[in-house]
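Record 1 of the preview.
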Amino acid sequence: MRLCVEFPSVSYREGPEGVTRFARAIEQIGYDHIDTFDHVVMGHPIEGRAAGPYQATMPILEALMTLSYIAAVTSRVTLGTEVLVLPQRQPTLVAKQVSTLDTLSGGRVRLGLGVGWQESEYEALDEEFHTRGARMDEAIRLMRAWWGDERVDFSGTHYRVTAMAMEPKPPQGRQIPIWIGGRSEAAYRRVGQLGDGWLAGGGLDADDARRAIESIRRHAVAAGRDPSAIGLHSMVAGPPRDAEGRRFYAEPDRVVARVVELKSLGFEWVALNATAAFQAGARSVNAMVDALSVLHEKIRAAVG
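->
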């Protein structure tokens, strides 16, 4: 089983050195992968706009910039997003950013993508919210063309490119892994048709997980793909919403039990949320590192 850490933006409060110290520690402990969370801006609740799941003032470092910083101070862990909201970005620019990150990290990128939920964020970035699913499908195909083709000619409904080139190609080429998040039939279809894996998020119960995996595999077969080649990744728990949620990461045995359950459901990747560990009482970079070290040892003992 691959063990991942969702990188805590809160580490920036201890300065750039705190960010690099945390990244190096995660690699040294033995975790396999680091993911970064993504939102560019967050909306305040106003008339006509409901409050979202996070406070508007929640600190969030930009995902790809943070990964480039982490890449420079690590050598083994793979690097990804969980998830980058692709349709609110220009996909050719994202392709270039990800290609550069893959080049400078030595081929360590795994790109996690989602369509997002926050309409006000799309508006702030001057992108259309209601076509985001269709544009996501096109953008994935376009990025793979940029990463693999010497000459790119692409004619879609939303994106068009004529006789252009992007160099250098990333070490992984067009095979940079693209994992897709979401819990809707559209997301499961997208994973089955276009994705290398599914990012399930956190808090999924066993029956819903089985139904989702079955749907993904059905869509993969319909697309002529091998369903067993599609990876499965879940957070151990979603972001805490209350005192009970905050206690979860303070009780390592509960975390281990959840990892064991996820493995039994077929998930080969699990992610620990370092920000949730911060909220559970690990209120510094050193404290988060200590908590994640204990959890890593216990989880490896339980699941290998």
